[in-house]
Amino acid sequence: MRLNPSLLFAAACVAAGASSAFAGYNLWTGEYSLTRQELQTALDKRFPATLRYAEVVSVQLSHPRLVLDEANNRVTTHVDARLTNALLPSPPVDGKLALNSGVRYDPAKRAVLLDNPTVQQVEVAGMGQYREQLNAIGAVVAQQLLKDYPVYTFKPEELRFGGKDIEPGAITVGKDEVRVEVKQR
């Protein structure tokens, strides 16, 4: 069996690149890829969460579900919500929130953060007449819970490649991943 020298060279290049590449870094595209599962795992650490408003309303949030919105370059987090009114002896009200965020890089923290979160949708059965108040609560929840929340923090060695310092650039939300462009400093 005769080995093709071109194939041997290509295999050696791939092996050399793979041995020096960091997890999630694509040597060929010059991007880090953060998979949906990696982002979901980071987001799971933020939940469950309980927020209180004016000691009147308590909002318990659980079961985050991440959706990557490629078309709008944003990330949507769907969560289950339970609202409890401390002043009125009534049963809790269950619903769902969809919180929409951009993604940005913070060089001081070396982290990819959720940016400018907004409430996209509030669903609470039988509470249509309180839609405005529920959207206001949802907007506060989005800011308190997700504003500047780090979904990935780079290790110092991940910002050096081939003996040179690199820094994250443009961030693109894809269908199954978030891609972070890297460039030399």
Automatic annotation (TrEMBL):
Pfam families: DUF1439. Keywords: Signal. InterPro entries: DUF1439. The keyword Signal applies. It comes from the Bacteria. Residues 1-23 form the signal peptide. This is DUF1439 domain-containing protein. It comes from Cupriavidus necator.
